[in-house]
Design brief:
The protein has 248 residues and is α/β, with parallel strands linked by helices. It is 33% helix and 31% strand.
Length: 248
């Protein structure tokens, strides 16, 4: 069953359409990658799904409910969002930052167990009493993911989490997202790295100029023809994983 679906969505900034007749689905228990060139509409798709950007036509279904009929409080408990880090340097204690993930449940929420669990899964418990701006980029990324996981939402939307991480931390983060999917969460993640997408994603949505050019298994939608047409690259394949190799 699809936990989150976009159905023929059109969304614009001013008079410019950024998504046009875009349809995609994100299934519980799977990691679905969203890939495409710069400006293809990847972040816009997440913002539309979250209700942060109005759309002109179409519909968004969240847990079989139309986004237009959902309260902000219900959406905040149903979807957790990890935006692009953008060099976050908040001088706040790590435990306090992770606790922010419980805000959708109100001031009386006793979410200490959820916070502790999220911190343990992201291996940041040892940083609880440190400030976020004292941590490395990889450590900050894990803290911010823990904040999202503390919400315990059935849908997790992640925007370019690996962009500023070294290879080891990229792999660690992707392994954490796969573990979330194994727990039954629908994970949607935007990626520029086609190697990570082909290796860790169950399905991939390919965006081009605001249109969904395809959705399916990595081996299907990241064909040689699609790589050339959408990304302008040729690739080598290692155990089925895509390694962009040259421009075409």
């Amino acid at each position: 069953m699809s936990a989150l679906s976009l159905l023929h969505v059109r969304a614009s900034y001013a008079a410019r359409a950024v998504l046009d007749d875009a349809s995609a689905s994100f299934v519980a228990g799977k990691v679905t990658g969203i890939v495409g060139p710069n400006g293809a509409g990847k972040t816009t798709l997440l913002r539309v799904a979250l209700g942060l950007l109005p759309f002109d036509n179409g519909d968004v279904q969240v847990l079989e409910r139309s986004l237009k009929d959902c309260s902000r409080e219900w959406l905040a408990r149903s979807m957790a969002y990890l935006p692009q880090e953008s060099a976050v340097q908040w001088p706040m204690l790590v435990e306090r930052i992770v606790t922010l993930g419980r805000l959708p449940y109100g001031p009386r929420d006793n979410g200490a167990a959820a916070v502790a669990d999220a911190m343990a899964r992201c291996d940041v418990s040892q940083f609880a009493a440190r400030r976020l701006n004292e941590l490395s980029a990889g450590e900050r990324a894990r803290v911010l993911l823990a904040r999202a996981l503390a919400t315990q939402a059935p849908i997790l939307l992640v925007d370019e989490p690996a962009a500023h991480l070294d290879p080891a931390h990229q792999l660690q983060l992707m392994e954490l997202l796969r573990a979330e999917a194994a727990r039954g969460v629908a994970v949607a993640i935007t990626l520029h790295d086609l190697s990570l997408a082909s290796r860790f994603c169950d399905e991939i949505v390919v965006l081009r100029n605001g249109h969904v050019a395809g959705q399916g298994a990595p081996g299907e939608v990241l064909s040689d023809a699609a790589l050339a047409q959408v990304f302008g690259v040729a690739a080598k394949r290692l155990d089925g994983n895509v390694v962009p190799w040259s421009r075409v």
